[in-house]
């Protein structure tokens, strides 16, 4: 199926399948960057910012994720997504959906894994559900403010330029209601959530550790081995994901990413 030719009832079916299954995989796609932008826009307002590193010339909507180097310099973000997270959860209106097109893949390594936050929430004990029902997590962009994350080795020399942007922390419910399905999901991640609003650290951190451990249980997870031409889209309101790395040289992983914005979590 060529996604650029999807129209009418076929697109409605794709959209319905997306909200039901959370991750969709389209094989053997040969997308030009503008075509990826156009398809992404069908699901919401395209996300971009002028100061993001490693975007395509003239197309700041498209981020380059790559371990390729040219004259010794990286051409893309090498370790994007190296901690479990939901895209842009540090924003007031986080990403609704993310779209990733594989232009080159390595024979070994470079897999991506997702965890189902509907199931993570639904399998919590009733006691824990009640405890977190009205709590809100503090989401931060700056990795330097998160003891569970580390500054990308790629950006150690200019960490202030990359992470010192004037992006205020966001506060979102630990349990959010999905705007399309009405289902509840656990909305935390070790990459972005550093505390709980109104709760002291001695109480908040053990609670977060408990949630972080629970949300990545093996039975909640799907691991994708990429093929060249794969185009994946996923629902950030009901999933967290992680790039697993481990690319064996001389393997190259080179991808184009777009995102569309969603609603403020409630």
Structural descriptors:
266 residues, alpha+beta, Double-stranded beta-helix
Q: What shape does the CA trace take?
A: globular
| Tally of individual helices | 6
CATH superfamily: Clavaminate synthase-like
Main β sheet profile? 6 strands, antiparallel
Strand percentage lies at 25-35%
Strand order of the largest sheet: 1-14-6-16-3-2
Can you give a write-up of this model?
The protein has 266 residues and is of the alpha+beta class. The chain has one domain (23-261): 4-Layer Sandwich (Double-stranded beta-helix). It has six helices and 16 strands. The protein has helices at residues 8-21, 33-41, 117-122, 126-132, 159-163, 201-215; strands at residues 23-26, 55-56, 59-66, 69-70, 73-74, 95-104, 112-116, 136-139, 170-173, 175-177, 184-186, 193-196, 221-224, 231-235, 239-243, 254-261. Strand 4 and strand 5 form a beta hairpin. It is globular and about 50 Å long.
């Amino acid at each position: 199926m060529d996604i650029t030719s999807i129209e009418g009832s076929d697109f409605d079916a794709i959209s319905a399948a997306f909200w039901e299954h959370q991750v969709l995989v389209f094989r053997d796609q040969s997308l030009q960057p503008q075509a990826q932008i156009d398809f992404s826009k069908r699901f919401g307002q395209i996300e971009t910012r002028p100061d993001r590193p490693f975007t395509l010339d003239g197309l700041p909507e498209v981020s380059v994720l790559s371990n390729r180097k040219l004259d010794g310099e990286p051409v893309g973000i090498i370790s994007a997504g190296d901690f479990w997270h939901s895209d842009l959860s540090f924003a007031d209106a986080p990403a609704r959906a993310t779209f990733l097109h594989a232009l080159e893949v390595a024979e070994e390594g470079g897999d991506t894994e997702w965890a189902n936050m509907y199931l993570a929430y639904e399998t919590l004990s009733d006691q824990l559900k009640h405890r977190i029902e009205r709590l809100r997590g503090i989401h931060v962009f700056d990795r330097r403010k998160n003891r569970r994350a580390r500054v990308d080795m790629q950006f150690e020399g200019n960490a202030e330029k990359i992470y010192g942007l004037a992006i205020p922390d966001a506060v979102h419910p630990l349990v959010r209601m999905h705007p399309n399905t009405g289902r509840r999901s656990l909305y935390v991640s070790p990459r972005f959530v550093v505390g709980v609003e109104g709760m002291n650290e001695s109480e908040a951190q053990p609670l977060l550790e408990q949630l972080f451990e629970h949300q990545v249980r093996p039975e909640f997870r799907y691991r994708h081995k990429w093929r060249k031409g794969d185009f994946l889209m996923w629902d950030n309101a009901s999933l967290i994901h992680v790039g697993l790395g481990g690319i064996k040289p001389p393997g190259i992983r080179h991808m184009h990413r777009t995102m569309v914005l969603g609603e403020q979590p409630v």
